[in-house]
């Protein structure tokens, strides 16, 4: 799918360095990492565990900060925002879907989906309307009053996706969204993500180990090779 908005950059990581202090060790996860994703892309991010895939999603979604470098989402540089501004920005601009749905067990599907809207200026009635719309979009309107324990794994993941899209973010970040699901249910969830990408214009970045899942994406990044290629081009720039 080639559209005009594919030329507009949705996500840009520039010269990212990210390291963690583990005891007295400094663990470098990303070293001068660069990535650019256009609006409307559906990117599958693959590679061995421990390589820093989740870390990249956290950086893109403002859940974590780079040690140095910049994170630019749309026109906004987010790594320099204050914590308060960043959480408001995140609530409006990013939807997260994790391997485990992280639904609150004491809230109904509707209640779980309304939750992120508490961070927005919407009033109670508007929150209910938006949540109902999101639940309808993922085919879960009839289960709105059910508690998570009354839902199947696939249905729980649908509710989690409704929660991720309820504030109508432009970007959806998924970390192994089908990791806990059987093949058929996984395919249903991936089809739903494809609909959100193709019909609703969401830019999606999905970490996955699943080759079948990556077939739904418009671009597959094998992170190990991508990092190597980045280092090679930096080397030849220095040598050249
Ligand atoms: N909060 C953290 N504190 C310390 N180390 C971390 C933290 N998060 C991730 N790491 C380390 O960073 C590396 C990359 O982790 P991660 O991004 O989760 O990899 P992946 O998702 O590709 O499996 C791992 O070595 C992990 O132990
Ligand atoms: Mg991970």
Shape: globular
Provide the helix percentage: 25-40%
Strand percentage, roughly? 15-25%
CATH topology (level 3) name = Rossmann fold
* Total beta-strand segments: 9
CATH architecture: 3-Layer(aba) Sandwich
Distinct small molecules bound, one entry per kind: adenosine-5'-diphosphate, magnesium ion
| N-to-C SSE string, H for helix and E for strand | EEEHEEHEHHHEHEHEH
Query: Helices and strands: which structural class?
Result: alpha/beta
Radius of gyration: 18 Å
The count of helical stretches stands at: 8
What does this entry show, briefly?
37% of the residues lie in helices and 25% in strands.
What are the SSEs and their pairings?
Blueprint lengths: L8 E14 L2 E14 L3 E5 L6 H8 L7 E6 L2 E2 L5 H11 E4 L11 H6 L9 H14 L15 H13 L5 E5 L7 H16 L4 E5 L3 H4 L4 E4 H17 L1
Parallel strand pairs: 3-8, 3-9, 6-7, 7-8
Antiparallel strand pairs: 1-2, 1-4, 4-5
Helix pairs in contact: 4-5, 5-6
Bound molecules: adenosine-5'-diphosphate (ADP) and magnesium ion.
Describe the structure.
- Helices cover 37% and strands 25% of the residues.
- The chain is built from eight helices and nine strands.
- Strand 4 and strand 5 form a beta hairpin.
- The chain is globular.
- The model has no long low-confidence stretch (mean pLDDT 93).
- Bound molecules: adenosine-5'-diphosphate and magnesium ion.
């Amino acid at each position: 799918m080639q559209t005009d908005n594919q030329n507009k950059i949705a996500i840009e990581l520039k010269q990212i360095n990210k390291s963690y202090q583990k005891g007295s060790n400094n663990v470098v996860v990303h070293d001068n990492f660069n990535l650019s994703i256009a609006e409307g892309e559906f990117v599958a991010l693959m590679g061995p565990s421990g390589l820093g895939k989740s870390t990249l999603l956290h950086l893109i979604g403002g859940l974590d900060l780079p040690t140095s470098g910049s994170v630019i989402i749309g026109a906004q540089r987010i790594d320099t925002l204050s914590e308060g501004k960043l959480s408001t920005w995140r609530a409006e601009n990013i939807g997260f879907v994790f391997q485990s749905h992280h639904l609150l067990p004491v809230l109904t599907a509707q209640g779980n989906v309304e939750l992120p809207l508490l961070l927005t200026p919407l009033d109670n009635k508007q929150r209910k309307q938006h949540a109902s719309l999101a639940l309808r979009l993922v085919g879960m309107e009839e289960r709105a009053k059910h508690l998570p324990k009354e839902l199947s794994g696939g249905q729980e993941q649908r509710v989690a996706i409704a929660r991720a899209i309820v504030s109508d973010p432009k970007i959806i970040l998924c970390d192994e969204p089908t990791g806990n699901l059987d093949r058929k249910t996984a395919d249903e969830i991936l089809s739903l993500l494809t609909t959100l990408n193709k019909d609703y214009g969401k830019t999606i970045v999905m970490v996955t180990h699943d080759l079948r899942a990556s077939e739904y994406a418009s671009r597959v990044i094998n992170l190990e090779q991508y990092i190597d290629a980045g280092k090679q081009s930096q080397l030849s720039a220095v040598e050249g």
